[in-house]
Design a protein that fits this description.
The chain is an all-alpha fold. The protein has one domain. The longest helix is centred in the middle third of the chain and has 72 residues. The chain is rod-shaped. 0% of the residues are buried. The model has no long low-confidence stretch (mean pLDDT 86).
């Protein structure tokens, strides 16, 4: 039987201040290592996100440049159509321009 009068249970020694300080220093060192590991992992994650954003940015820029080329092409075609139409029907073009100007001025006065 443990704990009998003949063999009393062994008690743990009370921790001294020196023991507690040593454990606290060990705990601080462990926490520092954990924080360094977490910081390294966070830096890696940030680098990965930056790389993916950079790739997406480049793709978007390419798409925008292609869209701008297409818009310029269509604007050039529209300009040619308007120029041809204006040369073929100068009076109608003048009346249309006057009507649009009048309409815009009425809308802007409101």
């Amino acid at each position: 039987m443990s704990g009998s009068a003949e063999n009393p249970p062994k008690r743990a020694k009370p921790a001294t201040a020196k023991d507690l300080e040593a454990k606290l220093d060990s705990l601080r060192a462990d926490m520092d290592e954990i924080m360094k590991a977490l910081a390294g992992k966070a830096e890696d994650e940030v680098a990965d996100v930056k790389a993916s954003i950079s790739g997406a940015k480049d793709d978007l820029l390419d798409d925008l440049q292609e869209a701008l080329k297409e818009i310029r092409k269509q604007a050039g075609s529209a300009e040619k159509v308007i120029e041809t139409s204006t040369r073929e029907h100068p009076l109608q073009s003048l009346l249309l321009a006057f009507g649009l100007g009048f309409l815009i001025s009425v809308l802007l006065r409101r």
